[in-house]
Amino acid sequence: MIETKIFGPTAHPSTRTLFGAASLGSVSQERADETLEVLLKYGVNHIDVAASYGQGEAEKRLAPWFAHHRDKFFLATKTGQRTYEGAKTELHGSLERMKTDHVELIQMHNLVETGEWDVAIGKNGALQALIEARDEGLVDYIGVTGHGFTVPRMHMKSLEQFDFASVLVPYNWLIYQHAEYRKSFDELFAVCKTKGVAVQTIKSIARRPWQGEPTRNCWYEPFEDQEQINDTVAWVLGNPDVFLNTVGDVDLLPRVLEAASLYTARRKRPSDSVMQKLANDMNMELIYDGTQPVHRT
């Protein structure tokens, strides 16, 4: 089983390893059901999906299963819309696709570009629609997510404007060795800890950008060996104040959950020397190029 932690300002004891459901948008309903059963095996109780995953198909795959298991999960989804009407429409579409009357968390998806941020946070922006949805009981909390080197700085800007319940940022050993990223991540992390904001992390098992044709449902080449996944997952979970969002490939999901379960039992974070050797042996590379915002659905 996987340890739990109260998720930010909520009272929910979420498993520290959250199910990132992006992969469900590209599999059959039968395969999705089999994947979701794995969550029960490991006690995972928090699902993170988005309206854009598989153009809504990932959310649809959850609906049949939620008919029997909705009360077991903290459910989070995302909207990539920046305007009031766009966000309102997309949220209602998400609720319909998942056959639920509310979600615990709605997140503004990949809010990293300044122009989009100005629209989303401003008058008649997406944030206004999400606040209204919260007041109507359609959502309980509001969060913000992002990809790339600029994410921590943009999240700091967002937190200055609104009391978001959660943020989502890239975090693994290699990206944390980047001096500029480490500085901005640490600054964001300190603010989140002071304000009680949940910190969700992504890309724990990223090895490098794809060297050829992708063979997994990830936009980066992941680690696949169980021992290597054990180390990369344990390094992230070794920070006791973050949550880890799982890999977007259904075949690798059980390996990540097994690694998280093993960390719960051992509670041992790999040393920098262990991680450096892994990086050298496996030719790890940063999956983000420079400091520009990254466009990801």
Describe what you observe in this structure:
It is a single chain. By secondary structure, the protein is an alpha/beta fold. It has one domain: NADP-dependent oxidoreductase domain (TIM Barrel). The protein is 43% helix and 17% strand. The protein has eleven helices and twelve strands. Strands 3-4-5-6-7-8-9-12 form an eight-stranded parallel beta barrel, surrounded by five helices. A two-stranded antiparallel ribbon has the order 1-2. The chain has a two-stranded antiparallel ribbon with strand order 10-11. Helix 6 links the parallel strand 7 and strand 8.
List descriptors.
297 residues, alpha/beta, TIM Barrel, eight-stranded parallel β-barrel, two-stranded antiparallel ribbon, 11 helices, 12 strands, globular
